[in-house]
Amino acid sequence: MALSAVEEALAATPEEVTLRALQAELLLHKVRDMSAGLPVLRRLVRDAIDKKSVVWMSVALRKLFDPSKDYSDFPRAERFAMGQELSEHILAAKPSRGGEGAKFLSYGAIAQYYYEAGKRKEAIELVELGLKWLDAAPAADAAKTDLV
Asked: Domain limits at 62?
């Protein structure tokens, strides 16, 4: 029921990243249909990278490395390859003036990828860097929960 509502909304607004992420979430974690969900997630990852959008890439990375989700059915090598590619693109991004927030707020998702990939030191460094940025940013307290 929820999935059909999301798919109907996507038909009207196919470039809405939140809806695309929700579709992947429902297919992969609620319906547990890997054969339908993985292509949706792969397309989200590819489109995010093609758009060079830190927001889209961060959303896609969170669909791959959300610590509250079970990824035991995911093809591990593919999940980590997508995580690596997204992380590299986010970290290399040069956001426009005023757009740095999306990049720094994505550091929590990148740190989760690093942590699961066994790169504990890099994960800690990234969280510390993100927290430093947040300490200097307006409305920092509300945003800190997204980082950690």
From this structure: 2-147
